[in-house]
């Protein structure tokens, strides 16, 4: 006799009088709702990672190119390769090419090796940067000159 691989989930419908613990109102998007890939401690992953909005590295990841919204490398985690994200937080090590369109935070245990581009940078005391770091700066958008108001034609 086989049993189901996971225990049945409790009835969490509003009609049953409840909402899952930690759940938010419908329509609100939290970190838990994002497509997240967690590479746990002691696990190594090589290859292409697609469609992950948030990547959390506690083990080792080697990849030629990853696009995601958020990258988090935990203490002891290692990322080797190329990655382009909106925001990144490094408490572990990244060795390769990193492009961060938003904020890059390097924690006290974080190490950045290789090349990196970012718009905003925060390095805690003890954080290490070895290699090339470039700040992304985009000029302020230029607005076209305002057209002079046209006189209204006179009506007889």
TrEMBL record:
Coiled coil: none annotated. Residues 1-35, 134-156 are annotated as: Disordered. InterPro entries: BacA/B. It comes from the Bacteria. Residues 1-11, 141-156 have a biased composition (Pro residues). It holds the Pfam family Bactofilin. PANTHER family: HYPOTHETICAL CYTOSOLIC PROTEIN (PTHR35024), POLYMER-FORMING CYTOSKELETAL PROTEIN (PTHR35024:SF4). Belongs to the bactofilin family. This is Polymer-forming cytoskeletal protein.
């Amino acid at each position: 006799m086989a049993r189901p691989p996971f225990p049945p989930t409790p009835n969490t419908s509003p009609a049953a009088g409840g909402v899952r613990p930690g759940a938010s109102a419908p329509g609100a998007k939290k970190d838990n709702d994002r497509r997240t890939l967690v590479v746990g401690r002691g696990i190594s992953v090589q290859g292409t990672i697609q469609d992950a909005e948030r990547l959390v590295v506690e083990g080792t990841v080697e990849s030629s190119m990853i696009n995601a919204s958020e990258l988090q490398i935990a203490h002891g985690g290692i990322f080797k390769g190329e990655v382009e994200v909106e925001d990144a937080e490094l408490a572990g090590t990244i060795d390769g090419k990193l492009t961060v369109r938003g904020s890059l935070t390097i924690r006290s245990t974080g190490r950045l090796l290789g090349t990196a581009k970012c718009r905003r940078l925060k390095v805690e005391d003890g954080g290490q940067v070895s290699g090339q770091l470039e700040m992304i700066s985009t000029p302020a958008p230029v607005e076209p000159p305002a057209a002079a108001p046209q006189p209204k034609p006179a009506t007889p």
